[in-house]
Design a protein that fits this description.
The structure is a homodimer of 265-residue chains.
Chain A lengths: L17 H6 L3 E5 L4 H13 L5 E4 L8 H7 L3 H5 L2 E3 L2 H4 L5 E5 L9 E3 L1 H13 L4 E5 L8 H4 L4 E3 L12 H14 L20 H17 L9 H14 L4 H16 L4
Chain lengths: 265, 265
C-alpha cells in the first residue's frame, strides 16, 4: 500500500501523462481553499487516481505555494498545472456536467448521488465528449448555496452519520478512487500471486495424497478401519483447499519423508 | 462533505455505539506505526466508517498520546479503546480471517483482492460469526514478509500505477469506506459449508505452526539456516490458505505427532 508497484490489469492503458489525462477526466474544483497544505494533499490524492485537472477558486494562501509542494509528496505535475479563478462560475465555464459535494441537505431540488454513481455517470458523460467537474467547498464550512446552485447534482458520501466529517483531501480521494475504480477491470476475486511456479495438477496431488496416506497408515494414524475413509476424505479436502503449487507439493512430500526418515536417525 | 448531517438511507440502522460496532466489524491493526499523529488520523477515518476496533503493534511513540487525540478530530472513542500488542501474532490471535494491505507483489502464493471484494467477503464472514481484521504496515516501508505470511489474503488498492503511494490514514479510509458502502449488494456465499466445527483462529494456527516447525527442525528438514525463514513463511502461507477448521488443526497436529512418534515403534 505504501509503495509504487501494482500488478493491476487495466481495461484501458494507464495514463500518466498530464496532457492525456486532462482531456478525459473530471476537473477537481476547490472553492476558496484556506490552507496551501490542504491543496497539496488534494493534489496527491488526485494523482493517486490519475486526475490532474485542478482548479482553485480564490485560494486564501498565495499561489503557487511551497507548502503545497511539500504535502503533495511528488504530485508536482498537478500543482504546476493548477489554474486559478476568481469565481466558481469562471472555474466551471468550460464544463458541462458539474457536481457539488455536500453533506448537508440543501433547500434545493437537485439529484443527490453517491461517489460511485457519480463516477459511473461521469465516465459515460466523458466518453460522449461532455466535460465534467466536481466542486469541493472550503475546509470548515463547505460550499455556499450560491456555489451549489451552479451544479447539476449533489454528491453525498455515505458515511457514519454520527461522524461523517472528512478533510478536504479525503473527500477528493474518495471521489477520485471511485472514478479510478470505474476505469479498472475489476475481477471480483483474484488473481493469485504465483511467481516461478504453477498450481499442482491433479496427478501431482493424487501422488501426494497416496504418499501421505501410506505414511499415515504406517505410523498407525489411520488405523481404525471404520473411520479411515472419512478421515482420508477430510485430509484430501483440506489439502485441496490449500491450492498448492507444484513446488509446494514437492516440499510437502519432502516434509513427510523428513518426518518419517527421522526415525532412522 | 465537511459537516455532520446526511440524508442517506441505510438498510441497517446506523450503529454509533462503540460496544455495538466492535462486535461486528473488522479490526484495524497498525503494525509498528511511527507517528502518533498518523494513528489519530487513522482513528478519524475509522470512525467515519463506523469502525472502532483499533489495534497497535509496538507503536514507536508512547501511548496513549495527546498528538493522536489532536489529529483524531473527535474520534476519541477509537483512541481510548485502542489495544496495544507486542507482536502481530498477538494482535490477531482472536481473529480468524486476516488481510494484509500491500502494494508490492510478494513472493508468496496468496489471494489478492480489491478493497471492494475484501469488504464484501468480510461482511459475509462476520455475518457467519467469523472475526476479521486488516493489517496495515508502517508508514514508509509497509509490512514485513513475516507479517504478510500471517494473513489469509492480500488487499491491493487499484490506483494510478505511476503514483500509488497512499498515506496510512488514506489507506484505512479506502478500506473502511468500502466496508461501509457494502450495506446493499453482497455475494450470497463465500465460504464452504462447515458443519459442527468452526475455522481455527490465529492462536490455534500459531500453535500448529510452532509445533510443525519444531518437529521439522528436529528431523533436520529446516536445517539450512539461510533458507529457514523463507521456508517457514512458505509453509505458513500454504497452511493459511487451507483455511483449516479447529478440528483439522487438531487432526494435523495429531498427524505430526503420529509421524514423529512412529520413530519409537
Amino acid at each position: 500500500m505504501s509503495d509504487n508497484n501494482t500488478s493491476t490489469k487495466f481495461r484501458r492503458p494507464p495514463k500518466t501523462q498530464a496532457a492525456d489525462i486532462v482531456q478525459d477526466s473530471p476537473a477537481i474544483i476547490l472553492v476558496e481553499p484556506q490552507m496551501a497544505e490542504n491543496i497539496g494533499m488534494v493534489a496527491r490524492a488526485m494523482l493517486n487516481c490519475a486526475l490532474t485537472d485542478l482548479r482553485l477558486v480564490s485560494p486564501r494562501d498565495k499561489w503557487p505555494n511551497p507548502r503545497a509542494y511539500k504535502t503533495a509528496s511528488g504530485a508536482d505535475v498537478v500543482i504546476e498545472n493548477a489554474k486559478i479563478f476568481e469565481t466558481t462560475a469562471d472555474a466551471i465555464a468550460d464544463l458541462t456536467q458539474v457536481y457539488a459535494t455536500t453533506a448537508r441537505a440543501r433547500d434545493m431540488t437537485k439529484d443527490v448521488v453517491t461517489p460511485r454513481a457519480a463516477a459511473a455517470e461521469m465516465h459515460t458523460f466523458i466518453d460522449q465528449g461532455t466535460q465534467c467537474g466536481v466542486l469541493f467547498g472550503r475546509e470548515a464550512v463547505g460550499l455556499h448555496n450560491d456555489d451549489v446552485a451552479l451544479a447539476d447534482s449533489l454528491i453525498n458520501v455515505p458515511l457514519n452519520p454520527a461522524f461523517s466529517s472528512l478533510n478536504l483531501a479525503q473527500a477528493v480521494l474518495l471521489l477520485g478512487y471511485e472514478w479510478f475504480q470505474d476505469t479498472v477491470e475489476r475481477p471480483d476475486t483474484v488473481d493469485e500471486v504465483r511467481l516461478d511456479t504453477r498450481r499442482a495438477n491433479k496427478q501431482e496431488l493424487q501422488n501426494l495424497f497416496e504418499h501421505f496416506e501410506h505414511e499415515l497408515d504406517n505410523c498407525g494414524f489411520l488405523g481404525y478401519a471404520d473411520k479411515r475413509p472419512k478421515m482420508v476424505r477430510n485430509l484430501r479436502n483440506m489439502l485441496n483447499r490449500a491450492r498448492m503449487t507444484e513446488q509446494e507439493v514437492r516440499t510437502f512430500r519432502g516434509i513427510i519423508s523428513g518426518l518419517v526418515n527421522g526415525r532412522r536417525v
